[in-house]
């Protein structure tokens, strides 16, 4: 079986193909011929260049020029210039050591910290022909290259400090509300903040199983919260085999930050950093071993939310009546709080306006009855504005069930008891939608006292 690594797709519609059709030589940038034989000149070398775009200052800079051609390569050379305004000089030339299908070019003394080095590649054949290549590995006329240094490859020597990264996520997030918070800093612009993930007990790296944090509305140069809920999970064949929010699924994941200079940094579960400074825009590089070892990734396993299954209360109680709110609920975790938060005409959340169902004698792990009768209503400014039993008063309220790891906010949407908000922050989770719900009493329940 043959194994050939394809270069990145070209935007101009050219292809990577065998020339002649079915032959041994693979060429990049050939004419696309759907349904017909491949065409192209196998004597014209197909070239790619591997190098670090930010090599360590003072250390040798190594370029690997890969080539494929039906002819014999007699010389591989690099023409270079330094500084921010590079200009072609025929004498600025370094030749490489030629192997079977590549040449190694050592850029001696071209490793000064902060100094930009630009270059293009020339490949000479034993038939007397010489071909020149731009930064996209396309064969280009020498006059075009010398006239436009923007077409050249480039690097700038100097150490690049790894970004700092702090993660926020719950080990047991609520099913359908999974999220991971990233807080980071870098000396160079961060252009990508991604999570790569796998689902199940036998995780493996699949490139398509990723979430692009840079596409999130919350993305900034200091952090992003990445929504991990309800993403398709693919296998190695591209078949969708599950969902990231499937009940009880273990998710293994790692974070990759990419900088504007092309550097990529991978972070393991212990906060160790694996850097990748290759320029070839592929998955190759020092990160491969890390991606192939999911035991070094972070993990979490989601859980089902606490469920409010029944809710009854009087819609129009008399001012002298008990106002009993009966709750029925269930949870895989212990219910530690079953509370009602309320507001009067002001309709604003005040933390002190609450009933603690967990303190009631009727409290169990399946339900509680809470009497809302004759309780002072505190305003935002701390003053008291009547009670929950005053005739003519409309009282707004919602239910909050809490476990040791999460809080669940319930109301009625239409006629159905509905989970309106989730807060996973008690267990260091990154997801919390409760503030918006608490700030909008139009979403709460209500009764009006007669």
**Secondary-structure class:** mainly beta
Strand fraction equals 35-45%
> What is the radius of gyration?
32 Å
CATH topology of the largest domain: Immunoglobulin-like
Show unreliable segments. 1-12
Largest sheet: 6 strands, antiparallel
In CATH, the architecture of the largest domain is: Sandwich
How many discrete domains? 3
What is the mean pLDDT? 91
- Tally the helices: 3
Percent helix: under 10%
Keywords:
six-stranded antiparallel sheet; 450 residues; Immunoglobulin-like; 3 helices
Structure description:
The protein has 450 residues and is mainly beta. The chain has helices spanning 142-147, 288-291, 434-438; strands spanning 15-18, 26-30, 46-50, 61-68, 73-82, 93-95, 97-98, 102-107, 116-125, 130-133, 139-140, 153-156, 164-168, 179-185, 190-199, 210-212, 223-227, 232-234, 240-243, 250-259, 264-267, 273-276, 298-301, 307-312, 324-330, 337-343, 354-356, 367-371, 376-378, 384-387, 394-402, 407-413, 416-423, 445-448.
List the helices and strands and how they pair.
Layout lengths: L14 E4 L7 E5 L15 E5 L10 E8 L4 E10 L10 E3 L1 E2 L3 E6 L8 E10 L4 E4 L5 E2 L1 H6 L5 E4 L7 E5 L10 E7 L4 E10 L10 E3 L10 E5 L4 E3 L5 E4 L6 E10 L4 E4 L5 E4 L11 H4 L6 E4 L5 E6 L11 E7 L6 E7 L10 E3 L10 E5 L4 E3 L5 E4 L6 E9 L4 E7 L2 E8 L10 H5 L6 E4 L2
Antiparallel strand pairs: 1-2, 3-4, 4-8, 5-6, 5-9, 7-8, 9-10, 9-12, 10-11, 13-14, 14-17, 15-16, 15-20, 18-19, 20-21, 20-23, 21-22, 24-25, 25-28, 26-27, 26-31, 29-30, 31-32, 31-34, 32-33
Brief account:
The protein is 3% helix and 41% strand. The protein contains three helices and 34 strands. The strands form nine sheets. Strands 5, 6, 9, 10, 11 and 12 form a six-stranded antiparallel β-sheet that branches. Strands 15, 16, 20, 21, 22 and 23 form a six-stranded antiparallel β-sheet that branches.
